[in-house]
Every structure is written in structure tokens, then in C-alpha cells.
Amino acid sequence: MEVLEAIRTRRSVRKFTSQMPDQKDLETVIEAGLYAANGMGRQDPVILAITSQPLRNRISEMNCAIGGWPKGFDPFYGAPVILMVLGHRSCVTRIYDGSLVLGNMMLAAHSLGLSSIWIHRAKEEAETEEFRQLLQSLGISEEMEGIGHLALGYAAQEPGEPSARNADRVFYL
User: Fold this and answer.
1) How far is the CA of 171 from the CAs of 8, 167, 168, in angstroms?
2) Domain map of the chain by residue range?
3) Positive or negative CA dihedral for 47, 150, 50, 32?
4) What is the pLDDT of residue 162?
């Protein structure tokens, strides 16, 4: 798939099947994130590939509570994989760099026939004691800030058509 075609046709999905993506595809999506542009070539963002269903469900519960939804709501829409992007607090470009990682992974997923959606509240999750303990168990610095999550899997329904692009957003000088 051409890059521009992927950009034009990628859509966020809010309903996933429980089918786990192929490991090779998952690794390809993650690799695309690792090749994202980043400030000063620091390669600061870290990606947590959460494929363990008990851990995935616990993170969903945390995200749900932070978002204020009723217990049992899944803010990851049933996606079997969560790719969480973190950046070190000392890196001044961490939010931008992590955003580029997420964008690359969304486009790579789409090019492989996978679906995705960016989910917020990673910052708040990473600030909890429970999450800090998880990072510590992985040997990851507690000085990491959550940037965002990518819910990843196969769409359970076709995404909608793209909306028309708003006018008056580009100015040539």
C-alpha cells in the first residue's frame, strides 16, 4: 500500500474481534514505531506491547476508571493488543516523539490489514503506583510518562467513510 493511500484511507475503529494479530505483523507495526522521527535522534520513546489478556484487561479497567466510565466499559473496544508508548520525563520532545511513534504504528497497522485507535489517559495510568511497579518489574525507569495507547487488532465492523476535509486550514506565504 502506498503511504499516501494509507494516510487517506486509515480510520479509527471502535469495535474489534478477539482474534490476536499474527506475531510477525505485530513486530512490523512496532518496528514502524521505532523508526519514527524523533528529537535530536534520541530514540526516547518506549513501547510496551501488551498481549497478556489479564494485563490488558487490568489496564482497560484502570483506563476506564480514569475516564469516568461505568465499570465494565472497555475503552480499548475489545482490541486484543494494546501498544502503550512512554517517554522519559527528561526528554523535552517526548510528547511529540511519542505521537510520531503512534502515528507510524497506526499507518503500518492499516497497511497490514489491521485496525487501530489511539486511546488517551496513558499519562494518568503511568502515574499510578500499580503502573510504576509494573515498570519497575520490567526494569524501566519510573521517570517515564505515558504518551498514548494504540488499541490494535482486527475490525469487527467496517470503518466509516472519511469526512470531508475542512477548508481554510492551509495558508501559503
Assistant:
1) 21, 11, 8
2) 3-153
3) negative
4) 85
Q: CA 64 to CA 59: how far, in whole Å?
A: 8
What angle is formed at CA 148 by the lines to CA 13 and CA 55, rounded to 5 degrees? 85
Angle at 157 between CA 27 and CA 81, to 5 degrees: 30
Q: How many helices (H) and strands (E) does the chain have?
A: 6, 4
For 3-153, give the CATH class: alpha beta
**pLDDT by residue (tens digit) across 66-125?**
999 999 999 999 999 999 999 999 999 999 999 999 999 999 999 999 999 999 999 999
Helices 94-111 and 23-34 pack at an angle, to 10 degrees, of 140
78 close to 64: Cβ distance less than 8 angstroms: no
The number of beta carbons lying within 10 Å of the beta carbon of residue 6 is 16
Nearest 10 degrees: CA dihedral of 69, 75, 80, 81?
Answer: -130
Q: CB within 8 A of 38, min separation 6: which ones?
A: 44, 45, 93, 97, 100
